[in-house]
What we know:
By secondary structure, the protein is an all-beta fold. The chain has strands at 15-18, 22-32, 36-44, 47-51, 69-70, 91-94, 98-107, 110-114, 127-130, 133-135. The chain is 0% helix and 42% strand. It has a 5-stranded antiparallel sheet with strand order 4-3-2-1-5, with no helix packed on it. The protein has a 5-stranded antiparallel sheet with strand order 9-8-7-6-10, with no helix packed on it. The chain is rod-shaped.
Amino acid sequence: MTNETTFENVNLLDRVFNVGLGWGxxxxxxxxxxxxxxxxxxxxxxxxxxYLPSGVVSTGCGVAVNQTLFWDExxxxxxxxxxxxxxxxxxxxxxxxxxxxxxxQSKNGEIETYDHGANSKTSNGIASYWKNWEVVE
Length: 137
């Protein structure tokens, strides 16, 4: 047995998973002589959808490009909204006491600031990262 991620060998009544529609079953398979499967139909609770052997929706006009059909359930984990990064040289207060200028960059949820009161024009390239910060008005 091989690990397959596409559907060249799909069979009638195979159970498949669509990331937006959930579980469904293959109800029809359409072949092209000497080439194999051209497309197949899956019945979901919300209706039927045609797919190419690649797992991409068969639109008839070639617009869909991303695989949405899989052999097993796909878990999607929503990313955390990134923190807004103040523009370069914005004055911020870090750790409730130090004033620093931002580099306009962030990493792992922390903003980057120039060290020792420097800004983009006076910095020697040394920077620090901070979780606790606020823009100084």
